Amino acid sequence: MTSAFFRDCADCPEMVIVPAGRFTMGAPASEEGSDDGERPQHLVTVKSFALGRSEVTVADFERFVKASGYRSDAERNTRVRGFGDGCYTYISRPSGWEAGRSWHDPGFKQGAANPAVCVSWNDAQAYAAWLSKRTGRIYRLLSEAEWEYAARAGTTTSRYWGEDPNHACKFANVADRALAVKGPLFSQSGEAATIHDCDDRHAETAPVGSFRPNAFGLYDMLGNVWEWTQDCGINRYADAPRDGSAWLRIQLCLSEVPRRLLARRSRRRAGGRTQRVRSRVPELPPGFPPCQDD
User: Fold this and answer.
1) Any idea where the Sulfatase-modifying factor enzyme-like domain is (predicted)?
2) Max Cα–Cα distance, the chain, nearest Å
């Protein structure tokens, strides 16, 4: 089911062509851990696009920063309501905002092949714009529907490897035994992390491509860290587009949607950044518009 891989330049991200298709987006009420924000389930038709095979790495983001002189929101301490200086850190105890933390110093050891974290939605947009200018192709963030379609890769289970969360460590970097020994982990909302009964050998982020890919040949679509999407944050799917495009009602766009599990959603403001958020970029093949009107 995997497609051929390609790059638009020698050090550009490796891309995968994701085939067009149709899928059921969201989670049924019977799915353990789901909530009303993942409903109603609805059919979505998605056009073909090319997607980065893995998350944007530290090396990728550093290349962009050096070439453009860009300074991230974390480095500039961009203030938005509810956010502090630097980056929101989970590895430190207690978790919270830490001044001086950013993509090049998130508070734990990172190598060139690890995903760039402490990256805001604004930073991800800037990276995609730079890559577009450099290559002459159109790069952008995925719509939320495209993300879930690519992550599912033709599956209908709650995870692309099946239903059992404890099989995760073969496929994803998750909250596992290695992390549990560091003490309890909590989200910004105070929700305790679910600890998987397995060991993926990585207490923090893992180098991209460390685990098995899904059927489209994409790595780390679940686990490791959250991924930004293009969409404005909405509470439910009642008015969500059915054509795979992003939900972009600018007058109501107070937050954007990062994703981490097949049907799991969250909302973060565009200037927000944490140790757990990064991006991957799709490329639009000729004739595929960067966005579509409702």
Assistant:
1) 12-245
2) 50
Question: E-assigned strands of the chain?
Answer: 5-6, 15-18, 21-25, 42-46, 49-52, 87-89, 96-98, 138-139, 226-232, 256-259, 277-278, 282-284
Can you read off the two tokens belonging to residue 246?
Answer: 């992003």
Per-residue tokens: 181:
């020994």
pLDDT in tens, 57-83: 999 999 999 999 999 998 988 666 556
Q: Assign domain 5-284 to its CATH architecture.
A: Alpha-Beta Complex (3.90)
Q: What residues does 121 pair with on adjacent strands?
A: none
The answer to whether 107 and 275 are in contact (CB under 8 A) is yes
Whole-angstrom Cα Rg for the chain:
18
Instruction: Give the N- to C-terminal CA distance of the chain in Å, as an integer.
Output: 31
* Strand-pair category, 282-284 with 138-139: antiparallel
pLDDT of residue 290: 28
Residues 272/80, Cβ–Cβ less than 8 Å: yes
> In 3-state terms, the chain is what percent helix, strand and coil (to 5)?
20, 20, 65
Query: Which three-class secondary structure state does DSSP give residue 24?
Result: strand
> Alpha-carbon distance 223 to 142, whole Å?
17
- Residue 213 CA to residue 161 CA, distance in Å, equals 10
Tell me which of 162-171, 217-226, 255-264 is least confident: 255-264
User: Structure pTM?
Assistant: 0.83
Say if CB 189 and CB 240 are below 8 A apart: no
Residue 242, both tokens: 């059915």
Lowest mean pLDDT among 47-61, 93-107, 115-129: 93-107
Single out the residue of 60, 94, 79, 103 nearest to residue 274, CA to CA: 103
